[in-house]
Write a structure and sequence with these properties.
With 265 residues, the protein is α/β, with parallel strands linked by helices. The chain folds into 2 domains: 4-66, Winged helix-like DNA-binding domain superfamily/Winged helix DNA-binding domain (Arc Repressor Mutant, subunit A), CATH 1.10.10.10; 75-264, Rossmann fold (3-Layer(aba) Sandwich), CATH 3.40.50.1360. Helix content is 38%, strand content 23%. The chain has helices spanning 9-26, 31-38, 42-54, 75-82, 85-96, 111-119, 133-139, 164-170, 198-207, 245-253; strands at 28-30, 59-61, 64-66, 104-107, 127-130, 146-149, 153-155, 160-162, 175-181, 184-186, 189-192, 208-214, 226-229, 236-239, 257-260, 263-264. The strands form 4 sheets. Strands 6-5-4-9-12-14-15-16 form an 8-stranded mixed β-sheet, with helices on both faces. A 3-stranded antiparallel β-sheet has the order 1-3-2. A 3-stranded antiparallel β-sheet has the order 10-11-13, with helices on one face. Strand 4, helix 6 and strand 5 form a beta-alpha-beta unit. Helix 5 packs across helix 6 (111-119) and helix 6 packs parallel to helix 7 (133-139). It is globular. The termini are far apart. 39% of the residues are buried.
Length: 265
C-alpha cells in the first residue's frame, strides 16, 4: 500500500479535508474505515486524527473519531461549546479524577458537562445517567459503560430531555455523584437561564449522593435570572481559576470543597 504521506504537505491537507467531509456526513468514522477508504496506513490516519483533534475539528474516541459534540448539535450549542473550551476541558479532566472506574454517575446537560463524558476513559465500566442528547451520543463510543437515558421533551438549545417524564424517571434512580452545569454562580447560589430545565436539574441533584458543580471563571462574572439552589446544596466545585475572596468565603461557609485546575483551593 502506498502511503499518501509521501505526496507531501498538500496531500496531507487534502486528506484531512476529506476526513472532515466524511465525518460531517457520518458523525463517527473508524480508523479501519479511513485506512481502507483513503489507502494510507493506520499510523498515517492516527496522525491525521491527532492533528485535527489538536485543532478542535474532531474528537479522538475509542476506535476512531467523532465530531466534537455529535451530529445532533445545534448552532447555538456548538457556539457555546467554543466559549472557554480549554477551561471546560481542564475542569472536566479534574472532575473525572473524582470518579471511581465503576461508579454510577449522572451528567447534566450543557457544554461543560458534555466535556466530562468526553473525558471519561475508554475503560470506564460504570453507569452514566443523563438527559443530554450529546452525552448519550458520545457514550456509544464507550462500550464498557452502562448508560441510562432519561425521557422527556427535547429542549433544542440545550440538547436536553426535560420535564415531568425526566423527573419521574429520576425518582427511581440513584447516582453516587451528579456533574452539574449552571449559567451563573455567586455568593447567593446557583442560577440558570430559564425555568424549563430547573425541575430536571433539581431532580438530578436529589438523586445523587454528591453534587459536583462545574463552573469556569466566566460563570462568576455573569448573571442569570432563575435561582436554581443555594450554594450549600453543592458538595464540590470544580473550576479553572481561584475564586474571588467573597465567593471563596461563601463557599467555605457553605462547606463546598473547591478544586481549581485539578488542585484544591
Amino acid at each position: 500500500m502506498a502511503d499518501s504521506t509521501t505526496t507531501g504537505a498538500r496531500g496531507g491537507a487534502g486528506r484531512r479535508e476529506e476526513i472532515m467531509r466524511r465525518l460531517q456526513d457520518a458523525g463517527f468514522l473508524s480508523v479501519t474505515y479511513l485506512t481502507a477508504e483513503l489507502g494510507v496506513s493506520d499510523m498515517t490516519v492516527r496522525r491525521d486524527l491527532k492533528q485535527l483533534a489538536a485543532a478542535g475539528e474532531l474528537r479522538v474516541v475509542h476506535g476512531g473519531a467523532s465530531l466534537p459534540h455529535g451530529t445532533l448539535r445545534t448552532a447555538d450549542f456548538a457556539s457555546r461549546a467554543q466559549h472557554e473550551r480549554e477551561a471546560k476541558r481542564r475542569i472536566a479532566r479534574a472532575a473525572v479524577g473524582l470518579v471511581a472506574p465503576a461508579a454510577t454517575i449522572a451528567i447534566d446537560a450543557g457544554t461543560t458537562a458534555f466535556e466530562v463524558a468526553a473525558a471519561l476513559p475508554d475503560t470506564f465500566r460504570g453507569c452514566v445517567i443523563t438527559h443530554s442528547v450529546p452525552v448519550l451520543q458520545h457514550m456509544l463510543h464507550l462500550p464498557a459503560a452502562r448508560v441510562i437515558g432519561l425521557g422527556g421533551e427535547l429542549l433544542a438549545d440545550s440538547q436536553a430531555l426535560v420535564g415531568a417524564l425526566a423527573v419521574q424517571a429520576l425518582a427511581g434512580l440513584r447516582a453516587e455523584v451528579v456533574f452539574l452545569g449552571v449559567a451563573a454562580v455567586n455568593e447567593r447560589g446557583l442560577y440558570v437561564a430559564t425555568d424549563q430545565e430547573r425541575p430536571t436539574k433539581l431532580a438530578l441533584m436529589e438523586a445523587a449522593d454528591r453534587v459536583v458543580l462545574l463552573a469556569d471563571r466566566s460563570k462568576f462574572s455573569v448573571s442569570a435570572p432563575v435561582r436554581l439552589a443555594p450554594l450549600d446544596t453543592v458538595d464540590v466545585l470544580v473550576t479553572d481559576a481561584p475564586l474571588a475572596p467573597a465567593t471563596a468565603e461563601a463557599a467555605d461557609r457553605a462547606g463546598v470543597a473547591v478544586h481549581v485546575g485539578g488542585g484544591t483551593a
